């Protein structure tokens, strides 16, 4: 038996090691460029009080959560219960950024009905009909959830629907930690 | 109910595949002929169940059954029927189901067209294919079930990515999968031959037509993808060296090498271990491509939802399939002693050069594709190498390849005389050199060494091919289809190269701001902007511009580039206005409104761009013709092998008959 016939096998072994490494580096965990940066400012009308606005600077001084959602988003429905539990349990102020939904031609006031049916866990709902704030926040898909600290720095980004384990293992410990930090 | 039937049928298909994967193989090793006989009916049954499963999912899409999660996330009732069908393979779960269906289809086809193949061999081939099917169906059922239901049924589904709502992309994935999965046939033949330890040239003959067909599908699939990118992405580009494109290019290059190396193995009983290795590599790269696309380890314009759990499953599957085949190769390859010897000037030597260059090209692409990952592993952050790397390595390699390609037609097996070759090739060589130097001077009165090299490569290969077939001196109707296939495929390759050269060097691109009534001039064409109107079609609304193109005062084309809005959370899509021609394309993409009745436009003049895809169509046609060569349907020679195959204990003896090795070109 000639050793040279093992060369392809060895080469393949190296390739597998590389791919295994690639796999353990989940691209979703690659920090978003916004992490560690001041939260991008927005000033948007509130859904229930259209003549009032909500902005990032209004939230300064406490740890808060920004959750991007829309009534057309199937996975938002899936995360709604989980997210509501987090908000109720930690009493963390949460801004719901309603993305390209309320007030658009296609959906009108679907979002109002959505919240009426499923319950409204948000401290305030910001209406981003044109999706401009979404662009500033580097949104790649709905839903997305950000955690912002007392100084207004984005500390964490969760892409996709939050699931119960993520709330218990990541979000709750993080919120506790950030609350302990000096303002 | 219907989705549950689909799910159940898929589980039945998996069960059949398990039987198909284990019993015929076991029977072939222990001499149980009833078990061996299971292979064929199992292959048909597998196709039957997977097809039912596929039809059930299709039914769910056609009836807008949004209780099925996969349907609700990829389709809605506003989409035209054709795109509700293609939405089936628009995302991960469905495309894997398509993979499984195509694999079952190839298996059943091998079982059906297997008259000349000994039962023992066939049972092993089908067993290997069955095992691959087990892996894929497990993947679908465990990690990516497309039949999963939603508890809360949405009234309307989301929609398929608008980029994918296009006829070119509706047929691109099935084509590509036919090619990817088709390479599993050559792989299974090579595995079966190694398991039997009977490494004569017969398996190469059986594998050849299947490899040709798979290669044809790959060629057309890649060309469709490139064509789609050209007209749909609105950048006028036709190849981006994107990881996912590379993932389809690598198996194609290896399959090209395999087609040539199989010829040597069949006719000269040479390159045996090498051919086996190429068969393994071809299918392995198909699987690797699937892994790269599905696991999300690399970022790409094709990034579908990535999921590490799924990635891990494919990686384990890769490890099992490729690892076991390479292990088998390591232990069996020394038995694959090649028979024929050949001198340095011979057809074998020419094809060896072809194979070496093609494998180096594949390694180049693989390295470039995985480079971001390697750099990341070394801890230097995420970067990508991009077109400059690929072009600077691939272009010189291609030039070398083309020089050998033209000569290859005239080379004789075993030993040839350089003087004889020179006598044959000097006419096409001189003619193509003259053409390469004179044509650019006459047409664009410009000399550019790159144009000359590209034109030379293209005209040299096509002239050499045509003069070779003429010099055979036989009536065109009596020539074997294999010969026709070869000539047509090589002319196709030449066309593609000329197209690539000319469009890369001479295309013009300009971003302009035009008010209604204004016009812009490019390459002798006058583009006059007539206005923009709003149109509403069933799945989108669009701004449609009207642009009249005139040349010397005569209307060439009235173009209507569009900016489409598919609503919801989707990005606006560019639908370019294209006036296609044999020697040039005019390409206009509509940009943004700039106020005051002005819009931004991007205008391109693309000489000979269409040759790239026309060449690919010729290549595909060539592959198809060659697969239907009469030689592959002859049963006589194979019978001899069949008799010897009964005695499995002497399996290691090579049964290479002088008849096979002496066959003419």
CATH class of chain A: Alpha Beta
Category by helix and strand content of chain A: alpha/beta
Order of helices and strands of chain A: HEEEHEHEHEEH
Strand content bin of chain A: 15-25%
Shape of chain A: elongated
Count of individual helical segments of chain B: 20
How many domains make up the 3D coordinates of chain A?
1
Describe the model.
The complex is a heterodimer of chains A (183) and B (665). Chain A contains five helices and seven strands. Chain A is α/β, with parallel strands linked by helices and 183 residues long. Chain A has a single domain (34-180), classed as Glutaredoxin (3-Layer(aba) Sandwich). Chain A has a five-stranded mixed β-sheet with strand order 5-4-3-6-7. Chain A has a two-stranded antiparallel ribbon with strand order 1-2. The radius of gyration of chain A is 21 Å and the shape is elongated. Among the domains of chain B are: 1-165, no CATH class; 417-506; 508-608, Tick-borne Encephalitis virus Glycoprotein, domain 1 (Sandwich), CATH 2.60.98. Chain B has helices spanning 2-30, 33-36, 39-62, 69-74, 81-86, 92-112, 119-143, 167-196, 202-232, 243-268, 272-295, 308-332, 347-377, 386-408, 418-443, 449-471, 481-506, 610-627, 636-645, 658-661; strands spanning 508-515, 519-522, 525-537, 540-551, 554-559, 562-565, 573-575, 577-579, 584-595, 598-607. In chain B, helix 8 packs antiparallel against helix 9, helix 9 (202-232) runs antiparallel to helix 10 (243-268) and helix 13 (347-377) runs antiparallel to helix 14. Chain B is built from 20 helices and ten strands. Chain B has 665 residues and is of the alpha+beta class. Classes of the chains: A alpha/beta (183), B alpha+beta (665). Chains A and B meet through helix 1 of A and helix 4, helix 11, helix 12 and helix 13 of B.
Name the descriptors.
heterodimer, A: 183 residues, alpha/beta, Glutaredoxin, five-stranded mixed beta sheet, two-stranded antiparallel sheet, 5 helices, elongated, B: 665 residues, alpha+beta, Tick-borne Encephalitis virus Glycoprotein, domain 1, six-stranded antiparallel beta sheet, 20 helices, disordered C terminus
């Amino acid at each position: 038996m000639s050793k040279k016939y093992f060369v392809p096998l060895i080469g393949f072994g190296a390739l597998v090691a590389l791919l295994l490494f690639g796999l353990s580096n989940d691209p979703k965990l690659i920090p978003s460029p916004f992490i560690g940066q001041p939260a991008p400012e927005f000033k948007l009308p509130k859904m229930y009080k259209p003549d009032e606005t909500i902005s990032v600077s209004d939230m300064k001084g406490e740890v808060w959560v920004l959750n991007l959602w829309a009534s057309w988003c199937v996975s938002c429905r899936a995360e709604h219960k989980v997210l509501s539990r987090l908000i109720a349990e930690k009493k963390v102020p949460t801004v719901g950024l309603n993305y390209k939904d309320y007030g658009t031609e296609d959906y009108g006031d679907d979002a109002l009905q959505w919240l009426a049916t499923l319950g409204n866990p948000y401290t305030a709902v910001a209406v981003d009909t044109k999706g401009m704030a979404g662009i500033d926040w580097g949104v790649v898909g709905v839903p997305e959830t950000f955690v912002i600290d007392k100084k207004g720095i984005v500390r964490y980004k969760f892409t996709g629907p939050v699931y119960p384990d993520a709330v218990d293992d990541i979000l709750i410990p993080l919120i506790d930690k950030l609350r302990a930090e000096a303002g | 109910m219907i989705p549950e039937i689909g799910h159940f049928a898929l589980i039945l298909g998996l069960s059949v595949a398990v039987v198909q994967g284990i019993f015929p193989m076991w029977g072939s090793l222990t001499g149980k002929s009833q078990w061996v006989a299971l292979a064929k009916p199992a292959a048909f049954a597998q196709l039957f169940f997977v097809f039912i499963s596929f039809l059930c999912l299709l039914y769910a899409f056609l009836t807008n059954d949004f209780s099925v999660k996969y349907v609700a996330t990829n389709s809605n009732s506003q989409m035209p029927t054709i795109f509700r069908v293609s939405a089936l393979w628009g995302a991960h779960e469905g495309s894997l189901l398509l993979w499984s269906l195509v694999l079952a289809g190839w298996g059943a086809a091998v079982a059906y067209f297997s008259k000349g193949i000994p039962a023992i061999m066939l049972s092993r081939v089908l067993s290997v294919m069955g095992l691959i099917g087990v892996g894929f169906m497990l993947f679908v059922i465990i990690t990516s079930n497309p039949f999963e239901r939603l508890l809360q049924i949405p009234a309307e589904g989301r929609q398929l990515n608008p980029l994918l709502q296009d006829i070119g992309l509706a047929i691109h994935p099935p084509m590509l999968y036919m090619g990817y999965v088709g390479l599993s046939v050559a792989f299974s033949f090579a595995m079966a031959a190694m398991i039997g330890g009977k490494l004569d040239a017969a398996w190469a003959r059986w594998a050849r037509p299947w490899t040709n067909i798979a290669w044809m599908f790959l060629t057309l699939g890649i060309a469709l993808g490139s064509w789609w990118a050209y007209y749909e992405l609105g950048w006028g580009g036709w190849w981006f060296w994107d990881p996912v494109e590379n993932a389809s290019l690598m198996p194609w290059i290896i399959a090209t090498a395999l087609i040539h190396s199989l010829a040597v193995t069949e006719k000269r009983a040479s390159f045996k271990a090498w051919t086996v290795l190429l068969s393994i590599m071809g299918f392995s790269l198909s699987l690797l491509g699937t892994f790269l696309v599905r696991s999300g380890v690399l970022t790409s314009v094709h990034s579908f939802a990535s999921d590490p759990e799924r990635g891990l499953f494919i990686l384990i599957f890769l490890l099992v399939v490729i690892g076991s085949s390479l292990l088998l190769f390591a232990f069996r390859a020394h038995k694959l002693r090649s028979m024929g010897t050949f001198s340095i000037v011979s057809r074998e030597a020419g094809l060896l050069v072809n194979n070496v260059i093609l494998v180096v090209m594949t390694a180049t692409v693989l390295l470039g594709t995985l480079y971001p990952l390697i750099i990341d592993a070394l801890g230097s952050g995420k970067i990508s190498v991009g077109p400059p790397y690929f072009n600077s390595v691939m272009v010189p390699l291609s030039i070398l390849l083309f020089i050998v390609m033209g000569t290859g037609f005239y080379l004789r097996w075993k030993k040839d005389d350089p003087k004889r070759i020179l006598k044959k090739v000097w006419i096409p060589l001189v003619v193509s050199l003259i053409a390469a130097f004179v044509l650019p001077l006459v047409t664009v009165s410009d000399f550019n060494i790159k144009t000359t090299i590209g034109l030379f490569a293209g005209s040299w290969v096509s002239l050499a091919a045509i003069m070779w077939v003429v010099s055979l001196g036989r009536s065109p109707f009596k020539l074997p289809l294999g010969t026709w296939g070869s000539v047509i495929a090589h002319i196709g390759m030449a066309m593609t190269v000329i197209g690539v050269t000319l469009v890369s060097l001479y295309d013009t691109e300009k971003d302009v701001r035009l008010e209604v009534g204004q016009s812009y001039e490019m390459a002798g064409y006058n583009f006059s902007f007539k206005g923009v109107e709003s149109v509403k079609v069933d799945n989108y609304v669009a701004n449609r511009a009207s642009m009249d193109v005139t040349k010397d005062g005569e209307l060439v084309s009235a173009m209507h580039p569009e900016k489409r809005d598919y609503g919801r959370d989707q990005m606006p899509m560019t639908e370019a206005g294209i006036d296609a021609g044999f020697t040039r394309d005019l390409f206009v993409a509509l940009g943004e409104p700039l106020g005051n009745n002005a819009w931004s436009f991007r205008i391109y003049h693309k000489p000979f761009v269409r040759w790239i895809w026309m060449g690919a169509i010729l290549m595909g046609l060539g592959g198809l013709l060659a697969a239907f060569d009469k030689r592959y349907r002859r049963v006589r020679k194979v019978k001899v092998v069949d008799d010897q195959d009964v005695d499995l204990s002497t399996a290691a003896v090579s049964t290479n008959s002088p008849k096979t090795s002496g066959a003419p070109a």
